[in-house]
């Protein structure tokens, strides 16, 4: 089952998908040369929006938390990609410590950790899960929403290494665990805890990939140059796969400082979008998304259709915008062109999410939301989306089929997601303290 | 549908599979470190024999010709592995020329070429098929057994490069084709043609991987050291996955020279096997396979159960043994411990063949033969086998399942096939003229 694309205006997108199909060897060759210069992140997921006239990434997650939503039929694809990724970070080692998020009560998230660990185990790693949550003081078996057990063990710091102590769980005796690398599945929204500072082990992704230092605008700056080069390669309008954006610093929603900057940027962005909509005959109303420049989980996100929408926010809206995950305060925002999602299934809107390991697309899923509009962010807390696993991998276009045949739409998703992945690689290279 | 293992004596094998499952992280880690020192061939297939008490490779093909027999459900796995392989040989190029075998009348083989080209196209390469057959003097569209078209173009040598000339096929205008690399799917049984000598393009596999220079005994010499190290790692008897072998040079079946060497080696091998059979309580009769040390396609192969079998061969048997593919004369033979195949399906014997690209297992199939015995080679000309694609990939053991559950049997196949692949990597390294 694949969501329908419910828009009359899919001319530009069909021609975009068509030019991707025709240029496939050129595209893959271009990616290959890019990966010679830029090391792909260990893993990533990219949220896409498909407006029929435009297909663009709106968020790139370097600590993906939905491995449980991937199609189990393609598990072997993830395993093979994990083998490639593992060979790069720790060819000579076999132990890997995973550090998940601290919110251990989200049993769906726990299922993601089970699945991620499973992929890495199948890739031949000896995997254990080490928690840095203050609640986990001894080895604890938690249960996922579907009844799978997950053993979390408290991480112990010895000198500059993270270890797990020897433990006895039921009848099983676990030995002490000292791994070559530590895989973070924790986006560090709450800052970098001391226990993770100055480790001699290889931390993947690096600490500066966490939200305590990462900025969405740095990512989309890098995406600008990637999208420009790719669009020149294909001879297409870059706007078809790149959303406009602006930033405002020094925002304090509660103290109402920065409102003018925000309103001005919103206005100029809406103006630019209007011109493009006119060029392509799009009749929808332009909108922008205002969100925290650092952070995740769809908190601190607003859909805005007029500069007035950001002036004189009421207390509730200001509270909503001012704090994101882990109580992190919002002081910088990114104002990003909103991309309608015109994919829907049974009247619910759907947004594709593409998963990658190293530089390989391993699958993806749709976030399907019944309670949300086509101009709203679907990765929001509270209102649970229903995941719908991609029924085909994103790597096998059917060149004989129509541009919008499922495998071809998925191929286009894989290409755009890899463009965002490449932007993340460049972003991380630029943010690496060693390069500064 | 998976063949049954029809033997009462599968104790040693079950314990072998079990130790592989338990040691999975250790095994994968060991492979990873091996691949740091030894470059995997671009592609390979390995014929295995599963006797229930023993699981061993009996032939490693560096020019695999059965890509059409793989399960189409796992095509994406081949594509991803091909991406890895291509990145190693030609990261900066996008064109690849495939040179297939000259026997253009085997419409099943042609189907293999279509599938191989398809995998490489899906991996993003610009692929064309160049023939070195004297019959192909102009671009020729052939048809596979199932009606797929395959365009063969005559290869043109310009200086030290192989190219394809510009051509017009129907309404399609093909431009001149100059590729970074040339992929051989031709095992050079008939010797190395002049047109392939001293090319400046990257030839994959290298010319010395062809049967005009390769020797099975060099491969199994390398396999001896691989199997020894692996068996020490697992603490198992190396014999459980390694067939004994000997060689005789200076054989002339027609002039009846070399018979004494052959009979003596047959006798000593049978003796060694007998001792092992007694050790493991195997009641079958030991046998050996006598085959050409260079060459392929199951010509020049004999099942031998007594030294007398190789003395006083009649004219027909001598003729059969003396010449293999492309009229190549047999002067050296390898005498290899025969491994019974106790896998069968509907009363037909079955032999697994595992396919790999770079160092990744991408799938495999069973050769299913109704007209052959459990002690005969199943890759023989004339008597067509029926391919039965593996229904699962070889990379996903089910550690909770019984050792002989299908995914676990397949995992063991993948491990043993990779041992043979590693032996091929070492063999090629040793045979590389640059290392001599």
Automatic annotation (TrEMBL), chains A, B:
> Which InterPro entries does its entry note?
GshA (IPR011718), GshA_N (IPR042520)
Query: Could you confirm whether the keyword Ligase appears in this record?
Result: yes
Q: State if RNA-binding is listed as a keyword.
A: no
GO molecular function terms attached to this record: ligase activity
**Which keywords does this Swiss-Prot/TrEMBL entry list?**
Ligase
Name the source organism.
Methylotenera mobilis (strain JLW8 / ATCC BAA-1282 / DSM 17540)
Protein name (record):
Glutamate/cysteine ligase
Superkingdom of the source species: Bacteria
